[in-house]
Specification:
This protein is α+β, with helices and mostly antiparallel strands. The chain contains three helices and nine strands; from the N terminus they run αβββββαββββα. Strand 1 and strand 2 form a beta hairpin. The longest helix has 20 residues.
Length: 164
Amino acid sequence: MRLFSFFITVVVFAACNNADDNYLKPRNLLEYGIPYTILAPDSVDIKKENLVVQDEVIIKSQKSDDYEVRVYFGEATKDVVATKGEHLNNLRSISVYSSVNVILDEPNGFVFETVIDSTLHNFGFRRIVIQGDREYIFQSGNGNYTKEQAEEMYQATIPQEMKQ
């Protein structure tokens, strides 16, 4: 009986761990005007808004504040390098931040840390995708994120169509 109880405990534990590892699922965004599939939680609210010069799609988890991705898209006016530099400069120009530190730097995006004072740190990301004459900026939402959460959302926004 003791061996059977141990076996049941192991099976339940393994099943719970497996569900946590795969909570992000492919989510096609074509119906919102974005020709990509990213990874998102099963239960998300997706809202599209027209911001006159560009559109915005907000993808937010219904179950927690750990996942919110915003996608801004419209006509491309610059290349990836210039757009990435502009976003980083904009972050660094916000006077409330005592510093902005790049944690992960890639050709088409970055994960960053913003510091207000010694006790207030937040992490976020930007990913830039240019396809033809269209520009797609994926970025973290308005929440307070840990480094791990920001990195996870950054990796989740790699368009599945572009993975090798």
